[in-house]
Amino acid sequence: MATISAALVKDLREKTGAGMMDCKTALGETGGDIEAAIDWLRKKGLAKAAKKSGRVAAEGLVGVAVEANLGVIAEVNSETDFVARNDDFQSLVHGVVAVALDKAPNIDAESVKGAHYPGGGTVADAIANAVATIGENITLRRAAGLHVPHGVIGHYVHSQIVDGLGRIGVIVALESTGAEEPLKALGRHVAMHVAAASPLALDPAGVDPATIAREKAVLADKNAGKPPHVLEKIVESGLKTFYKEVCLLDQAYVHDPAKSVAQAVKEAEKSVGAPIAIKGFVRFALGEGVEKPAEEG
Question: What crossing angle do the helices spanning 87-103 and 123-134 adopt, rounded to 10°?
Fold first, then answer.
């Protein structure tokens, strides 16, 4: 039988809100597999559904830059929060984002690392120099870009330390031939929504099939024993509810929860003067999905 550490039980409790003993039992039943334990708790009705915890487990800054209908976002990690307030580190992140914008939209962390950095060398060289100067390990973890032929890239930075740098960054691509200023205002509002609501995908078609299969399995197990035709309807209804929670267009708009995001965008077409389509979004939360090693003692 797998050894279940107190740290693993604590981690499961933070992710699910379930009681300590329930978490320990779930981990015992699943051989210490935390994702399987989450599903076990949900099937027993002891945990809420399904979002990843998004718990911050690394420091640094998320940077965002937008130029007309092109936008980029990058996450640069450091070992401590103190470094995020260091002028040299902030200058590095601004520099990385500027390089990313020059190379966008088809970028990722590796392509940005290999690009020329102002002043000489590559972005990877600039990061190595910053490590030597600042004295902490620094990494460019991820980078992404968005572009629309006509329209704007809405953007928002949450917990902003300086212009364009903070702990959560969002870019949203709005395609439209309408008036730029109201389109920019809508883009910012939608980006703020994404920062708060953390959607997994634009619409159901964009949700990972494995995530859908997992959700179906949980719904089926929770309602085991019901006739097949009843179970099918329950699962179908449950998936619709799930999509309203995790798909951007289906989510209740944080600025007006009586409407979905799709409805709010449709209404905005009146002031913009043309159809609007959300073509994509990127949301980076600092340290999301990165686990720190357990502290000893």
Answer: 170
- Look up the pTM and report it: 0.79
- The verdict on whether omega for the bond into residue 105 sits within 30 degrees of 0, i.e. cis, is yes
Query: By C-alpha distance, which of 164, 154, 160 is closest to 98?
Result: 164
The 3-state secondary structure of 142-188, one letter per residue: EEEEEECCCEEEEEEEECCCECCEECEEEEEEEECCCCHHHHHHHHH
Q: What six digits make up the tokens of 206?
A: 């964009």
Tell me which DSSP letter residue 208 carries: -
- Beta pairing partners, 252: 260
Could you read off the pLDDT of 144-158 as tens digits, one per residue? 999 999 999 999 999
Q: Is 193 inside a domain boundary?
A: yes
Q: 274, 258, 99, 74: which is closest to 182 by C-alpha?
A: 274
User: Does 280 reside within a domain?
Assistant: yes
Domain that holds residue 74: 59-200+276-285
CATH of residue 86's domain is 3.30.479.20
* Cβ contact 70:172 at 8 Å: no
Asked, for residue 41, whether it belongs to a domain, the answer is no
Residue 150 within any structural domain of the chain: yes
User: 235-293: per-residue pLDDT in tens?
Assistant: 899 999 999 999 999 999 999 999 999 999 999 999 999 999 999 999 999 988 765 55
Strands 59-67 and 165-166: antiparallel
Structure-token match 């740290």, residue found: 7
* Count of alpha carbons within 13 angstroms of residue 213, beta-carbon side: 3
